[in-house]
């Protein structure tokens, strides 16, 4: 009976503790932002500085980095976008960075499912080079942010340790988007007028 009671208590304690997990070394994050007529989504791992020298050491200069930790960083555009001057069609891409001291090459790759450092340069589709800026405050955990500037412009911002870089993005086909937006406004106006007559 005593053995049965101990076994039951052990099972209960294991069950109770199984709902808890240890903090992830590089927690996964998703950032999503409404932009123009659709959304942009980024899924990435957030490594910490943890007292290390990051760029030029942990993340070597001149070597492609997965822009995060664990599985590859993924970015999805649900409409075409002007990515730092390059028009990119809607789709999901692997996002990589080739860091240098003064600038970063931001790469969109057709493989958004790779793990770790499994990077294939032959699958690169688009890339832009952006300047790196020093920050006054340190960023402990790597961060990717989407910062809207207006209805047709948004920055993709990378921050880690004491540096940041940003890719300016705009609506891919502004003329077509403007026409669609005008039509949507007409439809909403018709809906409002119809509702007011009821």
Structure description:
The protein has two helices and nine strands, in the order H-E-E-E-E-E-E-E-E-E-H. The chain has 198 residues and is an alpha+beta fold. The longest helix has 24 residues, at 174-197. The chain is globular and about 75 Å long. The chain starts with a helix and ends with a helix. The model has no long low-confidence stretch (mean pLDDT 87).
CA distance, first residue to last residue? 74 Å
Strand content: 35-45%
Q: In order across it, which strands form the biggest sheet?
A: 1-2-3-6-7-8-9-4-5
> Could you tell me the number of beta strands?
9
Structural class by SSE content: alpha+beta
Describe the largest sheet.
9 strands, antiparallel
Shape: globular
Order of H and E elements: HEEEEEEEEEH
Helix content: 10-25%
Regions with pLDDT < 50 over 5+ consecutive residues? none
The radius of gyration computed from the alpha-carbon positions, rounded to a whole number of angstroms, is 23 Å
Counting DSSP H or I runs of 4 or more residues, the number of helices is 2
Mean pLDDT: 87
